[in-house]
Amino acid sequence: MPPCDFVPEKYESYPYERMQKIREQYIVPSLRTYYKKPLLLHQGHMQWLFDHEGRRYLDLFAGIVTVSVGHCHPKVTMATQKQLARLWHTTNIYMYPAIHEYAEKLTSLFPEPLKVVYLTNSGSEANDLAMFMARLHTRNFDIICLRGGYHGGSPYTLGLTSLTPYKHGVANGFGCTTTMLPDVFRGPWGGSYCRDSPVQTVRKCSCTEGSCLAKDQYIEQFKDTLNTSVPKTVAGFIAEPMQGVNGAVQYPRNFLKEAYQLIRERGGLCISDEVQTGFGRTGSHFWGFQTHGVVPDIVTLAKGIGNGFPMAAVVTTKEIASSLAQNLHFNTFGGNPLACVVGAAVLDAIEEDGLQKNSEDVGTYMLLELAKLRDKFEIVGDVRGKGLMIGVEMVTDKDSRRPLPVEEINQIWEDCKDMGVLIGRGGLYSQTFRIKPPMCITKRDVDFAVEVFHTALQRHVERAAAK
C-alpha cells in the first residue's frame, strides 16, 4: 500500500456491536450496507478512508462518485469553517454574496446559452426540476430516457430510472418512455471502434474508423421509439453522457448528437444528467456532454459539485428558466451561503490542483492497466470508461458475455476490501465493478489497486479450479 503521512484521530464513539444494533433498530432497512461485515468508517483524508480500528483503505468509489477533490480537502474544509462562523442560512429571499459569486463562477464554465442556474440539494431534486422545466417550457409531456439509466429515486424521477432494483410497486413513470440502451458491449451491436475510450470492446466489427454500424442501428431503434411510443411532439430526452449506476456504460460515438437532433425536431429539450460525469471526471473535458460534441438545453449537477456536501444544480438558458417565473417556485435550502462557499471552493480546488488533467492522465493509465487484466482473465469481459469513470464488467466467459454469478463477484469484491481497496458495484445484474475514485488519486495508487485486483482475480481462478 502506498505510504500516507496522515494520522487519523483516535476513534472514541460507540463500539462496533452497538453501532450495528442501532442501525438495525433505528435506521430504515432500505439503506443497505456494503460487505458481509459492514465497515465502520471514522475519518477520511484525500483518497484514503480509515475505519474505527485505524485501518486504511484506498477509496475507489468516492462515496458513490461524490468526493471529487478528496476527503476533507483542506481548501474546502477551511472555506467551510470560515463560512460556518459567518452565516449559515437565510434562504434566497435575501441577497448574500456567496450565491452571486458562485452562480457567476459556475456558469462561466458552461458554453452559451447555458448561463442561468437554479441551485438545489440533491441529484434527484435537480432531475425532478429539469423534467418540470422541460414540460413547462415545451407545453409537451412525454420524456424519453435510456434503459439502464439512473436519474433519481423521487416519485417523479423514478419514471426515468430504468433499473429494476430501484423500482417499487407503486405507480410511477407516467409520461416517461424508455428506449434501447446503445451498449456496445452487452447490446446486440458493438465493435472495435465504437466508444470514446482508450479501451475498446473485444467484439469485432467490419466498421472503419470514423463510421459505426452499431451507432446507426441504435439510432434506428431510437427512431422506432419516437415513431411508435410517443406523440408527434415531446417534452424532452434525458441521458447521462456515460451511465453511472449501470456500470460506466458508454454509447457509440455520435449517438447522442443524432439523438439530440431527432428530439429537437419533435419540439423537445435535451437534458444532460451530469450528476456523475461532471466537474472534470472524464478528463478530456469538464462536462461529459462536451465529449459527445453536443450542447444540451438543460444540465443537472450534483454529487461532485460539493465534494460530499449536499448540494445540486440545474443549469439552463434564460428562456427556459423564465418558464418557471410564470408562478412561484421556491427552494428553502438551495443555494444557501454554506453550500455556495463549498461549491466555489471545490471549483478552485479542481483548477489549482489540476484535477481534470489528473483524471485524464491517471484514468487513462488505469484503464490500460486494467485492460491487461481483461486480456489475461476470461472472467473480465469488458474494461471501459474515460478519465476516472471506469467500469469492469465480469462475465462467465467472453464469448457468451453472461454475467458472472453474484456470489463469485461478491468474493472478489470482499477480497479487494480485505486487501485495502474499496470498489463500487453496478449494472443490471450487479456484475460490474465501478471505479470512480477522488480525482486526486495517483499512478502509484493505481499500481497498488491493480495489483490487489489481480490478486483477487487469481484467487478466484484458484477457487474455481479447486471445485
Characteristics:
globular, 14% strand, 467 residues, alpha/beta, 4-stranded mixed sheet, 12 helices, 7-stranded mixed sheet
Mean pLDDT across every amino acid position: 96
Structural class: alpha/beta
Largest beta sheet, briefly?
A: 7 strands, mixed
The parts where pLDDT drops under 50 for at least 5 residues are: none
Which overall shape is indicated by the principal axes computed on the Cα atoms?
A: globular
Strand order of the largest sheet: 4-10-9-8-7-5-6
Radius of gyration: 22 Å
Specify the helix fraction band: 25-40%
* Topology, number of strands: 15
Number of helices: 12
DSSP strand (E) fraction?
Answer: 5-15%
What is the first-to-last residue Cα distance?
A: 31 Å
The SSE string, one letter per element, is HEEEHHHEHEEHEHEEEHHHEEHEEEH
Provide a concise account of the structure shown.
34% of the residues lie in helices and 14% in strands.
Structure report:
This protein is an alpha/beta fold and 467 residues long. The protein has 12 helices and 15 strands. The protein has helices spanning 16-26, 62-65, 74-84, 97-107, 123-138, 213-228, 255-265, 318-322, 337-352, 355-376, 406-418, 443-466, and strands spanning 41-45, 48-51, 56-59, 116-120, 143-146, 176-179, 236-239, 269-273, 298-301, 312-316, 380-386, 389-394, 421-422, 424-426, 432-435. The strands form 3 sheets. Strands 4-10-9-8-7-5-6 form a 7-stranded mixed beta sheet, with helices on both faces. A 4-stranded mixed beta sheet has the order 1-2-3-13. Strand 1 and strand 2 form a beta hairpin. Helix 10 runs parallel beside helix 12 (443-466). The longest helix is centred in the last third of the chain and has 24 residues, at 443-466.
